[in-house]
Protein 1
Amino acid sequence: QVQLVESGGGLVQTGGSLRLSCAASGRTLSIYHMGWFRQAPEKEREFVGRIMWRSSRTYYADSLKGRFTISRDRAENTVYLQMNSLKPEDTAVYYCASGRDPDGWEYWGQGTQVTVSS
């Protein structure tokens, strides 16, 4: 199994920045990719982006390109989500997830709340 722990959420004003962290532990050698998702109240869960575990290549939701950046610290088995120019519509619970293959997300973190005030 893989354990994922997110941190770094909080309250920020419009235009501000936040960096979320997701620390992975356990069977990290089985990870193919890690991703970030978010879910706003009364909305479907939304894909934010992902990073390939070996190559660190990243992919993003088109609507978030340019504002959000995913990176990885190999030594710490930690993935980051840098969020800039935040807007009230970015308010959501943000989750990280890991998968063993391109189509799956087997493990999820507990989520961290991000609130952007107008």
Note: The longest strand covers residues 18-26.
Protein 2
Amino acid sequence: QLQASGGGLVQTGESLRLSCAASGGTVPTLHMGWFRQVPGKEREFVARIGWISGIASYADSVKGRFTISRDSARHTSYLQMSSLRPEDTAVYYCAVQRPGRDDFSIWGQGTQVTVSS
């Protein structure tokens, strides 16, 4: 089970850090990722990190502003979001891609991020 936290209401230009912690036992993880969704739109990829490699990749829309990291000992992923914009407003979800799978198959419940202009 994944538990996302850290969302909130901030103003344009401010920062937030989201956390995603695994509980109830960990599963083998290839990547942990962050996605976001606005009502009426499809969920979109934000960032992911290789659990062993630590290699990160980002959506173009957040590159240079967001940083994903992980704490393997705590089986926790973080998404540091800086220079937030109103268009970053969404529900943010964390997810796990297991080894041998192409998709993210384990999802957290989401945390709301609202950026006011």
Note: The chain has a mean pLDDT of 95.
